[in-house]
């Protein structure tokens, strides 16, 4: 579990308020002018105490701002370590990803994403931890650490998901023991019952075949030419945490990502964002405009969506938003007289 410790007070932070307080007390009881009851003496005494109080408030404000800057800097550093930026190219795929945090003070969120090239193909995770800010960062770190190992170790995508589920359960047990040390001798059956994580796992082969496992997460959008459609319509599994996973998990085939096509993975904060009139953010319409008006690239899609989202929410989204965009840049020219196979829909096995 990640913790950011507060810095101990410096000598200056302690000495200055003490000196100012001692000066005010010394003036009140040691200065003859402070003992007089005339209007002039009272005005001088009030001015002295007002100056001391103002100085203390300014000093405290500066200290709080300094601590806030340090906390933001530490939060950004922690996020860059845990949620590291993906490379712009990954085994023939163009990649772009970013997160927009709802917790402006901490600059971190509860969304997670990663894409890694393995001997089993390119494996991608997109997830959303309940809540946002520093409280969710420990869960993000536990899941991403597990995924980065399991993506290389496990031949089956279902085994990767089981590893994530076990990592989440272990993290919640450890957090429960840390928060309730009196019960550390025994693991609670449901340490944090209200905690859950939506997770989408994708596997993309060298020929563009896509397989997926979805636990309560929005399906990504497929951008093909000027068309923008959900990758699949299948009902997802429940989120990780509240319910056990099936023992046998088989990744669902979701067709092929053809050269030039893009996949846009996102967290529900994108489609659930509302404007001042309560209208939801039209993510699919924004993607259609991006495809129609711009040369499509992962970075362009990312900038277009975030710009429109900030405009829609007046710069204050209510939830964290993460986007990960993949484009198939692998060149493949069909043989003369051949046609691309029809794209199957992602269905339950």
Describe the protein in words:
The model is unreliable at 1-8 and 332-342 (pLDDT under 50). By secondary structure, the chain is α+β, with helices and mostly antiparallel strands. The chain starts with 10 loop residues before the first helix and ends in a 21-residue tail after the last strand. It folds into two domains: 11-75; 83-328, 4-Layer Sandwich (Phosphatase 2c, domain 1). α1 (11-30) packs antiparallel against α3 (39-82) and α4 packs antiparallel against α5 (157-179). The chain has helices at 11-30, 32-35, 39-82, 134-153, 157-179, 268-272, 283-293, 298-312; strands at residues 89-90, 93-100, 111-118, 121-129, 197-204, 209-215, 221-224, 227-230, 252-256, 262-266, 321-328. The strands form two sheets. The chain has a six-stranded antiparallel β-sheet. A five-stranded antiparallel β-sheet has the order 3-4-5-6-9, with helices on one face. It is 41% helix and 19% strand.
């Amino acid at each position: 579990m990640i913790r950011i410790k507060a810095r101990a007070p410096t000598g200056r932070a302690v000495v200055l308020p003490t000196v100012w307080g001692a000066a005010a007390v010394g003036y009140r009881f040691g200065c003859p002018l402070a003992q007089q009851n005339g209007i002039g003496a009272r005005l001088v005494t009030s001015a002295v105490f007002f100056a001391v109080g103002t100085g203390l408030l300014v000093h405290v404000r500066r200290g709080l701002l300094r601590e806030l800057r340090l906390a933001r800097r530490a939060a950004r550093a922690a996020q860059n370590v845990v949620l590291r930026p993906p490379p712009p190219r990954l085994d023939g795929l163009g990649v772009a990803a970013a997160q927009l945090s709802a917790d402006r003070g901490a600059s971190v969120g509860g969304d997670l994403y990663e894409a890694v090239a393995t001997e089993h193909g390119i494996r991608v995770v997109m997830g959303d931890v309940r809540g946002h800010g520093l409280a969710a960062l420990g869960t993000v770190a536990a899941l991403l650490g597990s995924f980065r190992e399991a993506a290389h170790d496990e031949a089956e995508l279902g085994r990767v998901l089981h590893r994530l589920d076990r990592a989440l359960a272990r993290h919640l047990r450890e957090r429960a023991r840390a928060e309730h040390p009196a019960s550390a001798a025994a693991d609670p059956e449901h340490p944090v019952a209200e905690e859950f994580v939506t997770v989408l796992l994708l596997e993309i082969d060298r020929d563009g075949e896509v397989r997926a496992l979805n636990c309560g997460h929005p399906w990504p959008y497929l951008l093909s030419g000027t068309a923008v459609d959900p990758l699949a319509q299948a009902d997802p599994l429940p989120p990780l945490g509240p319910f056990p996973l099936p023992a046998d998990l088989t990744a669902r085939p979701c067709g092929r990502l053809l050269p030039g096509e893009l996949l846009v993975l996102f967290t529900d904060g994108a489609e659930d964002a509302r404007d001042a009139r309560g209208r939801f953010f039209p993510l699919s319409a924004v993607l259609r405009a991006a495809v129609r008006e711009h040369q499509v690239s992962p970075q362009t899609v990312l900038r277009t969506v975030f710009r429109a989202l900030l405009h829609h929410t007046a710069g204050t989204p209510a939830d964290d938003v993460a986007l990960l965009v993949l484009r198939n840049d692998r060149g493949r020219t069909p043989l003369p007289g051949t046609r691309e196979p029809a794209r199957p829909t992602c269905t339950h096995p």
